[in-house]
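Below sits my pick:
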Amino acid sequence: MNLEQMLDYFKASDRIMGNITNWVEVPAKEAVYSEFPDFLDERIKEALKRRGIHRLYSHQASAISEVNAGKNVVVVTPTASGKTMCYNIPVLDAIIKDEESRAIFLFPTKALSQDQVAELHELITDAGVDVKTYTYDGDTPQSARRAIRQAGHIVVTNPDMLHSGILPHHTKWTKLFENLKFVVIDEVHHYRGVFGSHLANVIRRLKRICNFYGSNPQFICCSATIANPAELAQRITGCEMTLIDNNGAPSGKKNIIFYNPPLVNKELGIRKSSLLEAKQLAEMLIRNDIKTIVFTKSRLSVEVLVTYLKDIFHGKLEGDEKVRGYRGGYLPNLRREIEKGLRKGEISAVVSTNALELGIDIGSLEACIICGYPGTIASTWQQAGRAGRRKGESVTIMVANSSPLDQYIVNNPDYFFGSSPENGLINPDNLVILYSHMKCAAFELPFEDDEIFGVQTTQELLSFMEEAGLVRHVGKRWHWSSEVFPADEISLRSASNENFIIIDISDPHHRVIGETDRFSAPMLLHEEAIYIHDGQQYQVEKLDFDDKKAYVRKVDVDYYTDASLAVDLKVIDVFREKEGEKVLKSCGEVMVNALVTMFKKIKLYTHENIGSGPVNLPDLEMHTTSYWTSLPENVPGVVSQTQLQNGLLGLSNVLSNAAPVYLMCDPGDIKVVYQVRSTFTKRPTVYIYDNYPGGVGFSEKLFELHNELYSTARDMISRCPCESGCPSCVGPLNEFSGEENPKELTLMLIDLILGDKAEGKAT
């Protein structure tokens, strides 16, 4: 059956409809066209006509005209609306008219840059013009790099390469920086939190170098629909932006379905696994030859789901290659192969993390299954936009898990459909991030005495750098004087720039099959862990921390592993504090020590625990910012240590899900830990900390939203139909000790916190 018949089948099925909490039909939208601008080179017009494009969408024409007028623009339209044309056409037109002009295209991922370069090459070839476009990233051979530096009109790269491979070596790029006319930043909504804060500082360094060489580039930014695109683009670029949001692209009819798995234990509030429900739904769609993409939240769940689907369709879909996984850690050649297979329609289904959320061309898909709420409304719409594209009906099914946030979304659809998408939040003046990039900037060019780099205290920071022996003040300039290459010390995306490579020793040639970051390695690659790659299971034989290598061997077992993390937190400094009659709330700097203590063996399909084992690895240390709430030493109504521990555990669990509603961040961006007796406050304390070194402002925001946060937490618990607690509110009951009701204990602590009248005092 086709998609329309499949949707009719859903509507006729009591089992399926019984789990659907909301079904919204978004009607199809006709295109709004504009004619080609008169100033556009005829060769570009003819090239577009040969490709069947005789008119532009309204937003494309607006963007091209504004760029031609010298404006910095940010284009905000949904997925698959032709945003690429908004920068390809004006940049190409400018280079044709002045062959000395240069441009930098920035994409957040290598995959996206590869995809966009292919499209740009096609346009250049069709136009018959000599515009040299090159990709310059970590995969670019050394032999090609000199030619790119000299001859490249358009250099396509990513923030990481711009930061460490181009800006520090600007003397080799004189031709580029002297003539730089455009900087294109695609998927600007992707740059939030720590990544966006880093990028804003990289752009500050870029503009500084451009100024040195006498150029002043225009910025062209593209974004999916978020609440503050112009503000975000302005904070990243430091320039006034013109907003283009008159979307003229057509879109097919979309069905948005919220699916809540059935309860398997009503008393405990435990629902059927969202992964297993997603598997069933995907199986139905694939059997009917409906091209499907499934998004999951972790690398592990990608591989578990791929394993399930390959088992089902083994030998039935012209081989295993019809169902593929796609995630970070796959090597570039494998990712390109999967992307090509999707475009050609050779792959029936792909299971992906958010790596395919961005605008990579993956052909025409009809169905999208989102396994677990992605954490933001903007991300959900991005993932939903991967199905349907510009024509034809499509369906997106969001399968909720048992977490409070997921349950809040599926049971309160008005919040999702009625809210504007989230704001992109960055903090480029975060001292840790700013100082790191100031070191890079000083390495690139000397600082002048009156120069400002983002903050008014630039000169004070330079004096601090001089004390550290990094710069020397001579005359009216600050010169770099250290032998260190500062760009190597910064990772734009993660807390560490040290990746671990994964080596398959069952292969005679000891083949490298993937990689992972330093902070994920202990969780995924401890000895005896089952590492799943493209549906194949591997057992980790050895994890070498010194050489950053994990040695794995192919195995065939009926389980996967999941590691447990123990966190110890110490307060270093207090920034702000509010003391109430009973409750103290504070915000400050903390040091977090994380240690993987053990792992569990989880049986495939049934997901039951079939064993465990210890893990002996060094701990990981991180300085960050935190917001914490301290209760009185003797909590009213709590008569035992066990009761207090249960209440704090329930509070931690619900806060980790309530906070993202206000922070507009991914749930993994923050962590919550509790201490029955804090070594710092000497009181029972719950800490919420930024899961990034140095922090990016989430904790400070929560400090200000204290009452709103705890009110939402209370709402999540009180609305839950369970009696004593469940994964949808305070967490699974097997996490708690004793006979007490953890749900009641958690609500009692929240009422104590909300009922306290605090008087503010800054420290």
Summary: DSSP finds 24 helices and 33 strands in the chain. Confidence is low (pLDDT under 50) at residues 758-763.
